[in-house]
Please model this.
Amino acid sequence: MIVAKLTNLRVAVLATDGFEEAELTEPVKALKEAGAQVEILSTKSGQIQAFRHHDKSTTVNVDRVIDEAQASEYDAVLLPGGVLNADMLRMGPKVQSFLQQMQQAGKPFAVICHAPWVLISANLVQGRTLTSYYTIQDDISNAGGNWVDREVVVDGNWVTSRQPDDIPAFNREMLNLFAQFAPTASAS
Model:
């Protein structure tokens, strides 16, 4: 398998307490191995609490508070799932604005599990084909999106997946999509 080279790509990972551990840590590891610069943005500073399904697990350090970040500083966005994480993020006007600006600029999104809730609240789902954890398919449909039950879906500048079991396919398609948008280094 050829690994995409993402050396000059800056990725914003939007997460807060209650994110699903594997849905943040495994894609972040894949991005870093491909050379991307990854920053964890959250609604609070310090550390955020991961979960493995219903149980607390590790914590992750926050690099920046979302209020201090500008969408123009990033080339791509990763939204990990987790019910609590997605539900808390979707209510933040700064989070919604950040995602709207990323979408208006045509930047790529990688979104898994419950994270499409955040896209729904940002009014970005209308007319898009995506997947998610099966319990939010009605929310996506009611927001004007086309929900499909597949391990990974690529629709334009978005890649979406359903759950942790889909992470290998999600990471593969995320790296492929992000590589299409990666800035190139200036020639010497």
